[in-house]
Amino acid sequence: xxxxxxxxxxxxFRGINSIxxxxxxxxxxxxxxxxxxxxxxxxxxxxxxxxxxxxDEPVDRMLASINEEANLNPIGRFITRERLTSLIAIRLRAxxxxxxxxxxLEQELYPAWIIVGLQRTGTTKxxxxxxxxxxxxxxxxxxxxxxxxxxxxxxxxxxxxxxxxIKVARMSVKAVELMSPGFFAIHPIDAMQPEEDILMLDxxxxxxxxxxxxxxxxxxxxxxxxxxxxxxxxxxxxxxxxQWVKPAKRWVLKTPHHLEFPHLIEKCFNDVNxxxxxxxxxxxxxxxxxxxxxxxxxxxxxxxxxxxxxHWVRKTGYMLQQALDYRLEGNNSDKFMDIYYKDLISDSxxxxxxxxxxxxxxxxxxxxxxxxxxxxHPHRKHGVHQYSLGDFGLTESDIDxxxxxxxxxxxxxxxxx
Length: 417
Prior knowledge:
Blueprint: H1 11-21, H2 34-45, H3 56-70, H4 74-100, H5 103-106, E1 112-115, H6 123-130, E2 136-137, H7 141-145, H8 163-179, H9 198-202, H10 217-224, H11 229-245, E3 250-254, H12 262-268, E4 272-278, H13 281-299, H14 305-327, E5 336-340, H15 341-346, H16 348-356, H17 364-376, H18 396-414
Parallel strand pairs: 1-3, 1-4, 2-3, 4-5
């Protein structure tokens, strides 16, 4: 790979995996099964009710795929157990709060600006800029990891930040730094900055998060053919809780996952505008494949970059087709605003001005806030991310095979690719 750290796991990480794996004969291999995970979550929370709309099949499908196909290393199994236990615990605590405070679900969901661009197209930069507007409600990383308070005697207050959940998030950031030092040049994780709301869908075990971390082809195939409505409906419940905790004027959400499901957003959300960042597909795809490979390497010692590429190039084309099909129906194009990556990088204020034309225009105070954020978070703050199509055995023709429809759309729209 071009990036010299790409294929190098830190010595400590390799050492722990090696020693741990050598003790498997002694019974140290972590088991991943539904009953065990639910039992751990119930013990952790002291709660028992997962809600009447909890669906077992996604959990069963995911665990079968992980156990049979992902070939996780010991640390990968440990992280997966903790992650899945946490998701079940979140659901248990959510049901507790929904029952204790029925007014939560009686709220109207705020209007939303939803950033739906492909991975590596400037979506993170754009969301973090928009997050400095005090009228906007985002989900910072510490709150994404634990959207439900850890204490059951919680009630909303002016003090929104939770030190315990922030500490958990910072420990997670430190763990990624230790396991994958080069990852931050691709995606700078920050406990206090916004993260993808796909984690609201994870609580229903219906999202592409798992296939973005490990090899789970059977689960990914099942997921693509399965109605995701339950995940989006439950995500809306979680968002209502979060806005109950910290009110605002508008949600600013983002995840590439939404490209596949704009029709469900329209069905389940309230007033929505889509903001779609675009980038040369020959740049965004290998950039994302590089990021995925870093992800996979944290969970498994058996990582095949070309297999990752084969899965995700096709998946990328499918997501784009779903989004374009929706966009080109009726008057749906009116719900979209397009942002071009290079324009966002070169003159973010101009692009932000275009976005705020939907809300009365920019104010001098907001321009100053954006400027300060840019000074504190310069482009490539964590280093240069190097990648190429050749790293994954791909050519431009391989990308064209799955994305020509999208490329033609961008060329017509922008006069460039």
